[in-house]
Amino acid sequence: MSWLEENVREVLQAVDAGDPAVEACENRRKMLYQRAPRNIHRHVILSEIREAVAALPPDVTTQSVMGFDPLPPLDTIYSYVRPERLSPVSHGNMVALFFRSLLPNYTVE
């Protein structure tokens, strides 16, 4: 706590003295942090706090939101691809159909 207090005093002295580094840091902060990141918006949606959701930017609130993944990352990679399955009707063998019902990956070969 003492470290924090000491550093706050130093920063306040720099602000009061008109140090040019303060203005440079302020400009940099304005450029880098123009709005909350997407993951914060996602957290707000999941929190379901009405006041917080109402304060989200319009470009976030007008998007369709999926219940299982609200605001997925823009660079999402969908690695799961459902494999093609042969229809059980094409294999008339009852034993093969039985094994296929127990083990979906079972093939006659």
Structure description:
The termini are far apart. This protein has 109 residues and is an all-alpha fold. The longest helix is centred in the first third of the chain and has 16 residues, at 2-17. The chain is elongated, with a radius of gyration of 28 Å. The protein has helices spanning 2-17, 20-32, 38-47, 50-54, 58-61, 94-102. 52% of the residues lie in helices and 0% in strands. It has 6 helices and no strands. It has a domain at 1-73.
List the helices and strands and how they pair.
Blueprint: H1 2-17, H2 20-32, H3 38-47, H4 50-54, H5 58-61, H6 94-102
Organism: Ictidomys tridecemlineatus
Pfam family, one: Tcf25
Protein name: Transcription factor 25
Shape: elongated
Unreliable stretches covering 5 or more consecutive residues: none
The average pLDDT is 82
Give, in order, the helices and strands.
HHHHHH
Q: DSSP helix count?
A: 6
Rounded to the nearest angstrom, the distance between the terminal CA atoms is 70 Å
Helix content: 40-55%
Radius of gyration: 28 Å
* Structure summary, number of beta strands: 0
- What fraction of the residues are assigned to beta strands by DSSP? under 5%
Structural class: mainly alpha
The biggest sheet amounts to: none
Describe, in short, the structure shown.
With 109 residues, the chain is mostly helical.
Provide tags for this entry:
109 residues, Transcription factor 25, 6 helices, mainly alpha, elongated, TCF25/Rqc1
